[in-house]
Amino acid sequence: MEKDGNGSKDVIPIITKERYCKIKVDEIEFIEQIESMLHIMTIEHQEYIFRGKIEDIVPIISGKSFYRVMKKLVVNFDNVQNMGKSTMNFVSGITYGIGRNNFLKARRAYKNYLYGYPPFLGREERHGSNVAETFEYQGREEDMEEE
Q: 126 with 111: CB under 8 angstroms?
């Protein structure tokens, strides 16, 4: 796992013909794979495009607040401002539309994520399940629908 110059933040190194840089993991809003290219959007509204697969960065983002919405889309719940009708709104102002089935799964996961913060910390969801459990990266492809 790569660390920044201070040794305190996880980063994803990017090396392309045009750009050499590091992206701080906590600044990522979402990661989308389009064909053989990864598109990473940050809270600063910067888009980084490079050749790769989502599976290549799983070791870096695993155990953090990332959720795999679809086979080729991973979002960082820390940087989701809110969820509307079939859309995710990010802190940078970007709105991302999601199909109904995947949106319902993502909304449920986001709700559980939010229950992990005060004043809900330690409370149970209305239906009785404990929602203050540790959030883990959801990387099972067989559960994802292609959109």
A: no
Sorted by sequence, the CB contacts under 8 Å of residue 71 that are 6+ apart come out as: 141, 144, 145, 146
Separation between Cα atoms, residue 9 and residue 133, nearest integer Å: 23
For the chain, what's the residue count? 147
Task: Give, as one character, the DSSP assignment of residue 124.
Answer: B
pLDDT tens-digit readout, 114-123: 988 787 766 5
Q: Where in the chain are the domains?
A: 2-132
* Token digits of residue 42: 């940050």
Q: Which pLDDT does position 130 carry in this prediction? A: 33
pTM exceeding 0.85: no
Cα 47 to Cα 18: distance, rounded to the nearest angstrom:
13
Q: Residues 113, 77: contact at Cβ < 8 Å?
A: yes
Is 2-132 CATH 1.20.120.530?
no
Closest CA to 112 of 135, 93, 94: 135
Query: Would you say 16 and 50 are in contact if contact means Cβ atoms under 8 Å apart?
Result: yes
The candidate with the shortest Cα–Cα distance to 14, out of 61, 49, 58, is: 49
